[in-house]
Design goal:
The chain is α+β, with helices and mostly antiparallel strands. It has one domain: 3-Layer(aba) Sandwich (Trna Endonuclease, Chain: A, domain 1). It is built from six helices and eight strands. The strands form two sheets. The chain has a six-stranded mixed beta sheet with strand order 1-2-3-5-6-8.
Amino acid sequence: MLVASSKRMAVIFAEEISNYVTHVEALKEKDDNPYRNSPFRVYKEMSSKKKGKFFELLVEEYLKRQGHVVARADNSNYDRLVNGKIRLEIKGSMLWGDGTHFRWQQIRTNQEYDVVCFVAIYPDRIQFYGATKEQVCYNVEVQDEGGNWVFNQHGGKKVNSGTFVIDGFPEDFSWFSSLEDLICD
């Protein structure tokens, strides 16, 4: 049998929320969003999983428009097969915070791919960079003088998790190349 409760419900109503400092801060962050008036805002507002899907589709469509033949991967080690021979892994990022950097995540060096496409989505453009697997491995599988894995993404810095993350702008990575240079014959 249900018994009616005389307790007050804990609730914030819509007409009250503007009196909360937290809400005012959230609105300020929304206004500081560099994508606020960008046609790319739709991607910024997606979940990480959806972003990944659409980043892959954008790269595929871009490459097809450039005359390349692009097919879906036949396994989960890479995302697309370009021109029947280049196994392409796609990592995309949008500006983080108030535009302080990009963050490319989930870079796995043990997967079978030939080239990583690093997608940088600015509020006014999308740029495509690339690096061979060898370049990626050389530049992310890095230990400092204390034995710490500098770019390790999971499990702290003491053990190589096999998953890496890099933060910065494309120009911060001298090992980034033009994607076209890496996929053209």
